[in-house]
Design brief:
single chain, alpha/beta, Rossmann fold, 2 domains, 6-stranded parallel beta sheet, two-stranded antiparallel sheet, 6 helices, disordered N terminus, DHDPR_bac, 4-hydroxy-tetrahydrodipicolinate reductase, oxidoreductase, NAD(P)-bd_dom_sf, Dihydrodipicolinate reductase N-terminal domain-containing protein
């Protein structure tokens, strides 16, 4: 980020709890002169709520906006079951939130937890207001990533796309790439109750 001297760390964990999987995010940042304003889209989702809590607890960052089509008008702090409300209502208009942040001339970033059909427009809106994006949208298509790359390169604005937040998945990908030099193709198969995910490397 331009004019920003800090390091941002974000770790997302899956914690078993009562036969369900809960998302937990931890963030930390080196001290800076002013807080980074974080806008979270998809804030009412489980992972979005975890991000709200993590950003609220982190030094150097603050939640400046919550965007979602659910729980519109409700305080995001209450939706996240926090002890005190954050006095930040959930809105379903990203442009409105971006406009209010840009007027303050503060450093801002948009964290996107929405879906593949809206992520491109969300990033375009963020860039229009001079903000960078961090995108975690599972099942995002390669065409969308390529379009985002071309758009952000033309706009000279960075965008981090994380199609998976699993450390295990990243390690498996690296192992497959290494193995591919010794085989014609390498395939990672991840089986789930709802679907089977296949990641193939062919040379």
């Amino acid at each position: 980020m331009a004019g920003l001297s800090c390091q941002f760390y974000c770790a997302i964990h899956q914690i078993p709890h009562k036969a369900k999987v809960r998302s937990s995010i931890s963030c930390s940042m080196q001290p800076s002169q002013s807080n980074i304003k974080v806008i979270i889209t998809g804030a009412a989702k489980e992972i979005g709520r975890a991000a709200v809590v993590a950003v609220t607890r982190a030094r150097g960052m603050e939640v400046a906006g919550a965007v979602d089509s659910h729980f519109v008008g409700e305080d995001i702090g209450k939706v996240c079951d926090m002890e005190e409300p954050l006095e930040i209502p959930i809105l379903n208009d990203l442009t409105m939130v971006l406009g209010s942040i840009s007027q303050s001339k503060a450093t801002g970033v948009v964290v996107d937890f929405t879906d593949p059909s809206t992520v491109y427009e969300n990033v375009k809106q963020a860039v229009a207001f001079g903000m960078r994006s961090v995108v975690y949208v599972p099942r995002i298509k390669l065409d969308t990533v390529s379009a985002l790359s071309a758009f952000c390169d033309k706009a000279s604005m960075g965008c981090l796309v994380a199609p998976t937040l699993s450390i295990g998945s990243i390690l498996l990908q690296q192992a497959a790439i290494t193995a591919s030099f010794h085989y014609n193709n390498v395939e990672i198969v991840e089986s789930r109750a709802s679907a089977t995910v296949r990641l193939q490397f062919m040379f």
